[in-house]
C-alpha cells in the first residue's frame, strides 16, 4: 500500500484547487510574457561508437587474480542508474563469460531502489531495457543479504546472497561525481561493491554510520572476501554518451575509481550562470541523478546544507521521469512542483530511498500547483521581467541546450563556450497550461 493514502479513508490527499494568481495576487503573471533565447553549450562529446566491442576488448585485456570459473556461475552487476547503452555492455560481458566456459547472469545490485524489494528491483532493470532476452542470459534480483566480514572499525559488511553464492563476480558501474561523496571517490566500482552488492540492508548499515566514512572500508572487505573477477568502469561525456570504458583487476579497482572520477569531474556539464533567480527543469528523476536533480549542478548545499556554493533562488520541477517508477527522491530540493509530478510519486519507494540514505530533506513535499504555467508564474513572483534571471533546462543531466531570459543575454555572449540563437522565442504554454518552450 502506498504511503500517499489517507489514514482515514484510504484516498489520496486532495491537491490545491485554487489558482496561484488567486493566492498571491498575480504571482508574476506579467513575467510569462518573456521572450527567451536559446543558448547552446559547446561540450566535449567524443564517444565510443561500439561499446559492445570496447567491452569485449577490455575484458580480453583484463589480467585478473581470479581465474574465470569454468562451469561456474558468474554474477554481472547492473545498478539502478541509467547508463548509456548499458544493455550492450551487459550483453557483451555475458557473451565473454560464456566464451570462457562460465554461466553468466545479470544481478540487480542496488541499495534501497525499487522499494527495497526484489520485484521492484526487477522493474527498475526492465525500465532500462535489461531483460533476459536483451542481454542473453538470466536476470536475477534478491534483497536477502549475509554478513561476510567486518571493517577494521567493526562495521558489519553485508553481501547480496546471490553474489555470495556465485563462483565469480564482475562489477560494472559508471564512475561520476556523487551527490554526497565530495572527496576522491564518488559513484563507481567501490560504491557498486559496498552499496550495490550490500543490498537494502547493507545500504542501511553503511548510511547509518556515514557513507563517506564507510564506503571504502566496506568495499575493501567485499573485494577481499568475494571472488571478484574485475571491474568495468564507465565514464560518460557531457552528452551522457560513453567516452571511456576500462576493465581492471580487483587490485586496481580503488585506484581506477579515483582516476576515472577526476576525469568525470573535468567533463561534468554545468549551468554557466550565477546567480539565477528562477531555474525551471522539465524533468527530474532517479535515472538522471541519484537525487533526482544533481546537486553538483544546482548546488551541493541543497543536498548537504551549509553555505551555498552557487545562488539559485527558486527551482521549479515540472515532471518526474517514467524511468523513476515513482521514486521522487530529491523532490524536496525543488521550491515549486506541479500536481502532475506530485500525483506520480510512489511514497513507499521515495521514503525507502530517502530514509535509507538519510536524505530527509529530499523527500519533503514542495508547494504543488495545477499546471506548468501556474508553477512558473508563482516562482517568478517578485522578479521584474526586465531583470529576472530565468533559465529553463531539460534536466540536470542534459545541459547542452537551455533557454534564458534577456537579462542573461550579455553574459551568454561573453562566455567562450556558449552560442546564442539569432532570434528569440516567446515563453509559450499549451491550452492546458503545459510548457511548450523546452530546450
SSE layout:
Layout: H1 20-24, E1 35-41, H2 51-60, E2 73-78, H3 86-99, E3 103-108, H4 118-127, H5 132-135, E4 139-140, E5 145-150, E6 156-160, H6 161-165, E7 168-174, H7 189-196, H8 199-209, H9 211-225, E8 228-236, E9 242-248, H10 253-266, E10 276-281, H11 295-298, H12 301-304, E11 312-317, E12 336-338, H13 339-343, H14 347-357, E13 367-369, H15 372-380, E14 390-395, E15 398-404, H16 409-414, E16 418-420, E17 425-426
Parallel strand pairs: 2-3, 2-7, 3-4, 7-8, 10-11, 10-14, 11-12, 12-13
Antiparallel strand pairs: 1-15, 1-16, 1-17, 5-6, 8-9, 14-15
Helix pairs in contact: 2-3, 7-9, 8-9
Notable characteristics:
single chain, 439 residues, alpha/beta, six-stranded mixed sheet, 16 helices, disordered N terminus
In short:
The protein is α/β, with parallel strands linked by helices.
Describe this structure as you would to a colleague:
The chain has 439 residues and is α/β, with parallel strands linked by helices. The protein folds into two domains: 20-43 and 269-426, no CATH class; 51-266, Rossmann fold (3-Layer(aba) Sandwich), CATH 3.40.50. Helix content is 31%, strand content 21%. It is built from 16 helices and 17 strands. Strands 1, 10, 11, 12, 13, 14, 15, 16 and 17 form a nine-stranded mixed β-sheet that branches. It has a six-stranded mixed β-sheet with strand order 4-3-2-7-8-9, with helices on both faces. The longest helix has 15 residues, at 211-225.
